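Usage

Read records sequentially. Each one opens with the input sequence:
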Amino acid sequence: MGYTFLKKIQNHYFKKAKKEKYSARSVYKLEEINNKYQLIKNGFQVLDIGCAPGSWSQYLLKKIGNGKIVGIDIKKNVQISDKRFTFIHGNIFHIDEKFLNSNKNTFDLITSDAAPNTTGNKFVDSQNSLAIVKKVFRIAQSVLKINGSIIAKVFQGEDLKAFIDGVRKDFLKIVLFKPKSSRKESYELFIIAIKRNENIDTKY
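and closes with the structure output:
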């Protein structure tokens, strides 16, 4: 019964995404987050990390008006044709100083639905996911505006609490959120880091 219900929920979001012409059902996680926290504003400059296949950027484009989005992913399967969207094919672990320096305090919001290739080992997967999130927050030290926010996916794991505790002082508020559209068996959460403080000096 539980499995059947779960499949119905998954099929619902899959069909909904197809009908609304989004490239993936994961868009509804971002929609749910934004409905709750209202972090996406007209005119925003957004850095979308792990943007492939593009559903989050598609949703963001509907919300930012004349704003702009820079999407980064190691995959190339991003089919978005919009003058407000710039795609960078690359690995965030290899992001260069030129990008960081040229985008100093540029972005109002950083979103990340990036995830590692999973191994089936929960500890390994959570550690790899946390490594991505730490990199997202390190990038934010350079490119996120004061009062800017971060939405980043992370897998639950034993070191997550320590990381969250370490970055709390850098933002007005940090919460962990699991959207209803996430698979019930999934151990993904989203870190919602709201309004960056003036100085971020934490070493992640």
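Summary fields computed downstream for this record:
- DSSP finds six helices and seven strands in the chain.
- Helices lie at 2-19, 27-37, 55-63, 97-102, 122-143, 160-167.
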